[in-house]
Amino acid sequence: MQTRHGAIINIIGVGGRTGSAEFAIGGSVNAALMNLTKVLADKGLAEGVKVNAINPGSIATERLQTRIANVAAEQNLSPETAATRMASKLGVARFGTPDEIARAMAYLAASSYCQGAVLDVDGGQTRTL
């Protein structure tokens, strides 16, 4: 990594930004990974390695699509209606796409001035400073 001046992008999750009883362990791990990103970025600065992180919100992966289908079946809704209601409960207009996370990764990988950045890609779900 040093020889090529590489880049590390940790994919973490927004659960580390705000505490939740339902996600206590995962949130704690996510918060620790954000701290680790900052520590590695500090070390990487001296060694020529970029280190940043992305905190995805709810992204429409296969896993989430399965959850949406289950909620739709349980509540006798269309998958679209179930997805809209689930997203609304999170305070976002819609779920993100894997492509949106990939574009954020490409940006951080190409940026020559991002070091130790933690980018929330969550549709506005996270409302912390």
Offer a quick outline of the entry.
The protein has 4 helices and 3 strands, in the order E-H-E-H-H-H-E. It has 129 residues and is an alpha/beta fold.
What does this molecule look like?
The protein is an alpha/beta fold. It folds into two domains: 1-57 and 104-129, NAD(P)-binding Rossmann-like Domain (Rossmann fold, 3-Layer(aba) Sandwich), CATH 3.40.50.720; 60-95, no CATH class. It has helices spanning 24-47, 62-75, 79-90, 98-110, and strands at 7-11, 50-56, 118-121. Strands 1-2-3 form a three-stranded parallel beta sheet, sandwiched between helices. The mean pLDDT is 95.
Write the layout of secondary structure elements.
Elements: E1 7-11, H1 24-47, E2 50-56, H2 62-75, H3 79-90, H4 98-110, E3 118-121
Parallel strand pairs: 1-2, 2-3
Helix pairs in contact: 2-3
Pfam family, one: adh_short_C2
Family: Belongs to the short-chain dehydrogenases/reductases (SDR) family.
